[in-house]
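The material for today's practical consists of a large collection of protein records. Backbone structure tokens are a discrete shorthand for how the chain folds in space. An example says more than a description, so a record of this kind follows:
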Amino acid sequence: MNDRIINNIDDLHDMLDAAIQLEHATIPPYLTALYSIHPETNLEAAAAIRAVLVEEMLHMTLSANVLNALGKNPDLTAVGFVPDFPTRLPDGETDFSVSIDKFSPDTLETFLRIERPSKTSKDTTYSGPKGCLARSNHHAFQLRAVKPKSAPEYSFYSIGDFYTAIKEGIEYLEEQANQRGETIFTGDPSLQVSNEYYYSGGGQIVKVTDKDSAFRALSLIIEQGEGHGHEIFDSEGEISHYYRFEQLKHGQFYRVGDQPGKPSGNKFEVDFDKVYPIKRNPKLKDYPKGSQIYAAACAFNHNYQQFLSTVNKAFKGEQDLLLGAVCGMFRLKEHASQLIRNPIPSDSEYHGGPTFEMAYEQPSKDKQAQCPSEKMS
């Protein structure tokens, strides 16, 4: 079997499309956990989750810049872009479930598994292409990034292996193109998002025009917590996602010079009782039709779909929309609060929560109340 995952430009386009979907897939669980925290409590936890959310948007933007530079536009409105939760991700030889849920010890463990540094593969015998293992439950994975298109019976060993495959594909295809006096970076430079249109507390936007800038963009994603490396702080001095979340587990901040698992900074308290008891992985069918909580869930889904549509436009040349879209992501709290702070009428033990069920069509204002996303329940 060919050890290389990416053998042509279509393979590369598909992998980068999948990267954008993968980066987005973390936003619904992080956003829900953030909004489940009682106001004015768990300030350190809320700040950590919010910071990671902003950087996930950064990662989406970096991946979109690479894809645009290669001559293909992203599509955040495509059917299936938002996964049906719970969804599964690989963890070496095993896998785990990612849910929409309240902030809790279990949720925090899931976040740590999402962001974990890649495991060393020295003692791993790959049963297929480089970085991939055969999985008996391969059908359970929804996210395209998990399973390479050219070897659909396999799954990547880790997210780090996924991004490494993209970099190796760029290296290979650009070398082939250069031998013909060409380049694979044929995209319109005017579609690139720059720092003018996006602000992140950690990491800078990379405008992608060639192999070197593409590698810088992808390496930043990896450094910030999506794959390789066991360093607590990245090359820009920012703490990576995994260790940012691990601080919450220890109730103590990391300082420069600390060893993994041994933070030595200021201590703080994480109170998992100061959260609303939202239902895990709620669906519209869990809410009585005609109830306020049902209407709130419809409104949230509609506005979340509008958020994705706005980001999609920003990645296709309307870059000035991006700053507003990021702010809009956090403004979704108003709609989420109407769910999270209220018990479900038919199941008062639990509160409502966003369902993230998309209609994959833009409903008109007069149809919004009909909640077209219900058809996906």
